[in-house]
From TrEMBL, chains A, B:
Its EC number is 2.7.2.4. This is Aspartokinase. Keywords: Amino-acid biosynthesis, ATP-binding, Kinase, Lysine biosynthesis, Nucleotide-binding, Transferase. It comes from the Bacteria.
Amino acid sequence: MKFGGTSMAGTERIRRVAGIVKRQQEAGHEVAVVVSAMSGETDRLVTFCREANPLYDPAEYDVVVASGEQVTSGLLALHLQALGCKARSWLGWQLPIRTDEAHAKARIEEIDSAALLASMAAGEIAVIPGFQGLTADNRVTTLGRGGSDTSAVAVAAAVKADRCDIYTDVDGVYTTDPRIVAKARKLKSVTYEEMLELASVGSKVLQTRSVSLAMKENVRVQVLSSFIDESAPPADSLPGTMIVSDEELEGLDMERQLITGIAADKNEAKVILTRVPDRPGAVATIFSPLAEANINVDMIIQNVGREHTDTDVTFTVPASDLDRTKALLDAQQATIGFEKMTTDAKVAKISVVGVGMRSHAGVASTMFKALADRGINIQAISTSEIKVSVLIDADEVELAVRVLHTAYELDGA
Amino acid sequence: MKFGGTSMAGTERIRRVAGIVKRQQEAGHEVAVVVSAMSGETDRLVTFCREANPLYDPAEYDVVVASGEQVTSGLLALHLQALGCKARSWLGWQLPIRTDEAHAKARIEEIDSAALLASMAAGEIAVIPGFQGLTADNRVTTLGRGGSDTSAVAVAAAVKADRCDIYTDVDGVYTTDPRIVAKARKLKSVTYEEMLELASVGSKVLQTRSVSLAMKENVRVQVLSSFIDESAPPADSLPGTMIVSDEELEGLDMERQLITGIAADKNEAKVILTRVPDRPGAVATIFSPLAEANINVDMIIQNVGREHTDTDVTFTVPASDLDRTKALLDAQQATIGFEKMTTDAKVAKISVVGVGMRSHAGVASTMFKALADRGINIQAISTSEIKVSVLIDADEVELAVRVLHTAYELDGA
């Protein structure tokens, strides 16, 4: 079980979490719990680090910020004890959770589960601070923001858990954002690949890394709400959304649709370079400097000009990187040889996602037709095996999501 | 060097501490720094634990409250780095600082100084969170409130430091409380025994345990102010008060007075039991139940009655334990056989302290005469090798301290 910062923010909420955890133990499960810091605490600690030194040493930054999860893990153990459960905290260095040496964005390499399994077998609930780990030379690391989801999946893999339940402030994964489409339906299940596509295009339920890890380790992940009624039936009735492998999905949800969900991402910006010389290596001169600057280029479209001597190149970058992108390309204009650069931050990416489209043709054309029927102009297109994405005007994003939700027959009652 | 919570309370103050530490390194010293949590932080964390469970598990309490010092140790390392120093934090479990298993009030057993010495020899400033340690089975412990002073002395002993500088919010140890006697003088030096007597009778400069440890390990401790001018001469000129052994004291301070200081303690309460039967074991029936209840009895005076069949017994306990003391003795009235119990919380203990009194007679009589001359009534007397204490009315404490400060010729210019 994993609980985020909102669920751990203060005595009353931690007490509530303890109640939810206790019910799982009473239902016959051995339980390990991974916790985030109280919401706001990590920000407070990061601010202290920045004030100390804007170019802070990430090793010492990790010592400071890892303390937030240490506090909540001890407190949840105390709350569980107050409810009569046996419980103890296991800090990252105590298990240990071994990571690489990339401080402030470490990756988990190995979790020693021996002590954990012995403790759980003895009826103790194990409470583990998320987000933190230990290098080979015994220094504290953290996994980067949102890393507690990854901690939870890694612990679940290490103890070979039946399930990793991630309690969030939403009650599952929906066909699309319910704030945009009132008829959005909660999904019983999605595959890892679908969740990755949904996560990376703006559905902020789970950290992408945690889903990748779950896929790699084949951990069954359930997303569900931490604001459920504590007196409700135990979570074995799976009230949330299960994230599983392709194979398992068949058994869980026979009646699933061709398309699993529709995601919208407004944090994109479009860049058009006109009249780029059409010669070998020209495109590399555009994207190499961006890659070196760690700017993540997403959609790329190349329109060859009529005379086949030059082309227009359109691509998208995160809106927050647009200014840096412009500066880098302006500096390289002579080398690249483009005529003009135009940019537009008022764009949005809409994606339809579903493993079903592997075996069904016509998914993309349904999308294009539905949008055209409502006069929504498509500025760029990209596809993957289980996803079709289009770039449209940001003003039309809500309309487009609603139109597509209906077009793919996702609307609930 | 050790800095308390007031010195570590926020970015600006930690930056100031970093400057003081850097100046010591620039003066040619290898430096280890022990830090407390930001003032208020430990209270905040303790409150969370109490809210979780009033009868909290001290092992989990330790996990929670140890985080405060972890934060400040990382932050001080960052601030030192920002000033161009090499610095790193060493958490209690990283060195490790081994303690017994008495969670929330652990005692340090051993500090492995190998890594610390290697790091310091390489020019790195070692920053160590105070207050925390590690049991043999790798669980976090804390040393009890004020334990960071003890951590500092223990680290100084482990690395065989030339000196342990404890920065506090006073600039040294005075002949008496300067708020009571304007002419109180700062002492250049006191012995461990004197400091213990001064600390235990209300001079709250250092935690008693840290002084005991310094005496046992023969660590030279300097008390000085963390609010010194950073541009002042380096601390080698010893601006504070040195706490040293008897032997070393001679060399440091030839001109010292017979009496080192005068301490006042208002946190005492007096209990009088009248007509206790004068038979063997009678006194034990009074004090055994108090000892079992962990109530610390201080002064005890027994006045044998005129007929030698019963006696009056007067003693003092901490004022905070007076109600429990009354309840315990009331319950035992028949067993003890006293006639009446009277109590008085409006008393104060005045002590004159000095190693010089070992070789000088007349110290006590000077005290009694000076107080009598001003009409101050002595309610009880106790003495040790280097201390004479009297119990007086609490209203007369300031007057008594001033009278004695003059009588022992301690007044400064």
